[in-house]
Amino acid sequence: MIKPTPVAGTSLDRVDGVAKVTGQARYAGEYPEVGLLHGSVVSSTIARGRVLNIDSTQAMRVPGVIAVLDHGHRPHISSYDDDYSDADAAHGAPFRPLFDDRVLYNGQPLALVVAHTLELARYAGSLIRIEYAEEAHQTDLGACQQSHAAPAKTPAPRGDFAAQFAGAPVQVDATYLTANEYHNPMEPHASTVLYKGDGTLEIHDKTQGTQNCQDYLHKVFGLPKANIRVRAAFVGGAFGSGLRPQYQLPLAVMAALHLQRSVRVTLTRQQMFTFGYRPRTEQRLRLGADANGQLLAIAHDALGQTSRFEDFTEHVVEWSGMLYQCDNVALSYRLASLDVYTPLDMRAPGAASGMIALECAMDELACAAQIDPLDLRRRNFAASNANEGKPYSSKELLACYRQGAERFGWQNRNPQPRSMRHGNQLVGWGMAGGVWEAMQMKASAKARFDAQGHLTVCSATTDIGTGTYTVMTQIAADAAGARVQDVTFVLGDSSLPTAPLQGGSFTVSSVGSAVRQACQVLRTKVLEHARKMYPQVASTAREQIIF
Q: The dihedral of CA 354, 357, 363, 369: what is its sign?
């Protein structure tokens, strides 16, 4: 007998593909339940102030409306800031929905209308009248006059930036602005809380971390973890928006506990703009180089926005101290507190914004030094991470430069601005580099064979459309020596073995390693058992058994 052909790294149809394209896959806001109630969030229309009165009289008169919850009419919940922290929380006091009369940002949830149908809840919500005592606010980073050092430490300065920059033959001093960017995946945030008669909650939530949500609810509502099960079998995109529990989750749980009924809260597309986002930044880059384009000095100063209740930090400037070789580097990162909601990690948080500024500055330096942008980057290639004084285990950036240039026909590029045309259209060619960190987090997995030889592997990780179902199936098949069709990977359930948040590009390296190890141990146990039962086969086939 022969071993199965390895499948990791080969082309394979998504194992969850059929369920998704045929509509069998259920998302957080799609689980049916007899007697399910629907909640609609009423949001603030001012950026800062106090709520003087919430008049829900007309809303409660609508047939089918069950309840209206607000800060003055809600069940008891935790009043301690720390209880609202989660695995991706920023420094500070996390937001507490319906906690008191303070309005901290425009779009803040101020009331929840619960009714028999979503349409009724939304209509009734439109009848609620809110009276405010509005206060002066500041939501514009560009107009903010005060800032403070971010709690996240930046790499220590090295060399003498000021002296080297002042004496550099070629200099660039430029400021770049990036705007707020919102995740807005195809599936809006929703939570379906199924209230069980035995006092337990089964929750379908749009999240990138079921166990993070479970822990959050345990702390906020004081419920035993054993009474909370959070599931996320399918997630219709997230890009970081599901790293933290969003406010529809505690609101849905609050209503379910108050009414002792199953409740679903789904945010509107407009309300998808009322929580975390990639923050606006203002970045100043100063680059000094010699006549040959060799970097002599780099300074990267960034100002980012955050809320008044949390200090959200990203790794914005670090990349400028590691992507290119330079002995004189100064990095700084400051925050401006505004009357906005706390930003949130989004698709290479910090790096996406920081690299835009760095690479634009490198292009400007290439122009000032009259050096090809690709050649400039080659001349400043870094073989080690100077921020940490460590060599890279591997780095194929030079090969990437070469292959990209060959495939794109970079040698045919005319560097003169507005010189290249395609018919009546101007054509510009450019290039840029990018970098992201490789990380591993604590993760675990469980694997078992049934009597028919089918392998089931599970972990509490999620799949936000990145192919986790498929990748883990491949890893498990290879590690156990099984066929892909004989493997099932189960995820998205807080009751499964511990897994980290799905983010940071560390899911495969972390959960995948746990899956591989669990399957290898299981395989060894099965083989040992098989050798004892069939010694004559074991002496000839040894490790060549197929499951």
A: negative
